[in-house]
Amino acid sequence: MLVSFVVTTSLYSQVTFIPKAGVTLSNVAFSDDIKDSWGADFGSKIGFTVGIAAEIPLGSETWAIQPELLWIQKGYSYKYEEGGYKEDYNYTFNYLELPVLVKIRSGNFYAVAGPSIGYGIIGKYNGTYSENGDEIDDSDLVYFGGDASDYDEDEEWVDNALDVGIQLGAGVEVSVIVIELRYGFGLTNLYDERPGYPNDVKSQHRTLQLTMGIPLGRKE
């Protein structure tokens, strides 16, 4: 869909392609009843993103549409301690993400905003747990979609593979490089209600990403 849209539009507009890569700082906004029920501390984790954007002017140098195709890492950290027992984990979720953004330019500066939809491919958790002073390494894959009947008892999974959200950001062009800071606000819950989970589960991604890109094909 992205390629067809870009190719068709390029017949009438000047399209600039922007390969980009960067880092993410993400967490998951859990509802207070989950935090109270689990008695755990949830925090942020660092990940990476890479992809390509297509800047399509809308009749002027000020306005443009910018669809993108990204591979992006999201997730959260998890810590739990009670008595002599401790857990310390990072959860990393890999998504293919398609934002479609409106871009407003003023000189070398610009702002972007718009919806995005992502699809979870695979994830991983890794960390340690300890009891009575013995620390044990623990890691495995995290899967997307389905329900408990699809997985073994010890497998981890995220109920919803789709991740719909809103993205807001701003950037600047310095010489031949574009530097951008963007915030992603997830609207889709990762987890549905499960045995042992409180009702009305809230578990939505929050992602800050800093990227650098190189515009290709722009005619001044």
Structure characterization notes:
With 220 residues, the chain is mostly beta strands. It has helices spanning 2-10, 32-38; strands spanning 16-30, 41-43, 45-57, 63-82, 85-106, 109-131, 134-144, 156-158, 162-174, 177-186, 203-213. It has an eight-stranded antiparallel barrel with strand order 1-3-4-5-6-9-10-11. The chain has a single domain (2-213), classed as Porin.
Summary keywords:
2 helices, mainly beta, 220 residues, eight-stranded antiparallel beta barrel
Describe the structure concisely for a colleague.
The chain is mainly β and 220 residues long. The protein has one domain: Porin, CATH 2.40.160.20. It has two helices and eleven strands, in the order H-E-H-E-E-E-E-E-E-E-E-E-E.
- Record the strand order, biggest sheet: 1-3-4-5-6-9-10-11
Biggest beta sheet attributes: 8 strands, antiparallel, barrel
The overall number of domains is 1
Over the alpha carbons, how many angstroms does the gyration radius reach? Answer: 20 Å
Low-confidence stretches: none
Query: Terminal Cα separation, in Å?
Result: 28 Å
Q: How many E strands?
A: 11
CATH architecture call: Beta Barrel
By secondary-structure content and strand pairing, the structural class works out as: mainly beta
CATH fold-level assignment: Porin
Percentage beta strand: over 45%
Q: Please bin the fraction of helical residues.
A: under 10%
